[in-house]
Amino acid sequence: APLINIKDISFEYEQTKALENISLKVEKGDFLAILGPNGSGKSTLLKIMLGLIKPTKGTIELFGEDSKNFKNREWVGYVSQKSNSFNSGFPATVEEIVAGGLAKKTGLFHRLPKNYKEEVHHALVAVGMESFTGRSVSELSGGQQQRIFIARALVAKPKVLILDEPTVGIDHQNVQSFYNMLASLNRDKGITLVLVTHDVDTVTDKITHVACLNQTIHFHGFKDQLHTMSD
Ligand code: ADP
Ligand code: ADP
Predict the structure, then answer these.
(1) What was the ipTM of the complex prediction?
(2) Where does the record place the ABC transporter domain (predicted)?
(3) How far is it, in rounded angstroms, from Cα 61 to Cα 49?
(4) Under a CB-based contact definition with an 8 Å cutoff, are residues 218 and 20 in contact?
(5) Contact between 36 and 14 (Cβ < 8 Å)
(6) pLDDT in the model for residue 85
(7) What angle do CA 153, 136, 166 make, to 5 degrees?
(8) What is the pLDDT at residue 103?
(9) Which of 14, 28, 70, 77 has its CA 20 to 30 A from that of 191?
(10) Are 187 and 163 a contacting pair, CB within 8 Å?
(11) Pairwise CA distance, residues 164 & 150, whole Å
């Protein structure tokens, strides 16, 4: 079964039609970019994939199971747009932040597995940040912080990693190397990625699939792949 199978969904807020008749599959190993102007429904589509909101019409299956019945949310990793503006007010280290992705709630407490340092190290290697283990996250650049939050999601070994405009806080000259890192996660480590972005020019040679949301094309006739670029 596809990792994510969205079948002819629509979503309306009280006043606004945010999505209309969208169908979309994400298969293992895909690197999907969701493009579209502001207000075209990108965030709404991500919220539906994350199970945060239910479509007004249509169904979504996660790993072959109707999302209505889907319990294991840990299978989907998510890095929000604002994660890199994180400021805890205390000097959390890179290791502490990434280890947070491994913490299992056991009653009132959060418990880390015995081998957490090793797991954290692997995740940091994957994002090219292993030499920053003991550093305070607040001292890092926007791009470095974004990599730390990706490591935090990866350490939980999600089946798919969803990123909402991950380059928003990143200096222009570091955007290319950030996408190179994502491409290597996808190509070399087989991580399935779903990304909302405006960086069309930078992502075209990295992604395997593209979905364009805009006022005129609401995925009408969208099948497994849509190799159409707009804007
Ligand atoms: P994008 O992420 O592409 O900018 P959104 O999914 O945020 O698009 O929004 C799609 C449409 O739905 C827009 O017209 C937006 O104003 C509207 N919308 C988004 N969130 C809400 C909400 N919570 N309540 C009402 N309307 C919303
Ligand atoms: P993004 O840039 O990711 O699309 P926004 O900054 O547009 O996010 O929206 C931030 C939050 O505000 C989201 O949770 C979205 O659902 C909500 N929102 C967006 N548009 C509206 C709207 N017209 N009415 C109410 N809430 C909205």
Answers:
(1) 0.69
(2) 4-231
(3) 9
(4) yes
(5) no
(6) 55
(7) 40
(8) 85
(9) 70
(10) no
(11) 11
Q: Is the CB of 211 under 6 A from ligand 1?
A: no
Instruction: Please state, in angstroms and rounded to a whole number, the distance separating the CA atoms of residues 153 and 160.
Output: 10
pLDDT of the residue at 63: 87
Query: Which ligand places an atom closest to the C-alpha of 42?
Result: 1
Q: Which helix H or strand E contains 60, and what residues bound it? A: strand 57-62
Q: Are 24 and 219 in contact (CB under 8 A)?
A: yes
Ligand nearest to the backbone CA of 164: 2
Going from the first residue of the chain to its last (231 residues), give the mean pLDDT of each consecutive group of 10, the final group possibly shorter.
Answer: 94 92 95 92 92 91 82 81 61 91 78 93 97 94 93 94 93 93 95 94 91 60 39 35
**Cβ atoms within 10 Å, residue 6:** 25
Instruction: Give the whole-angstrom CA distance, residue 50 versus residue 231.
Output: 26
Ligand 2 touching residue 81 (CB < 6 A): yes
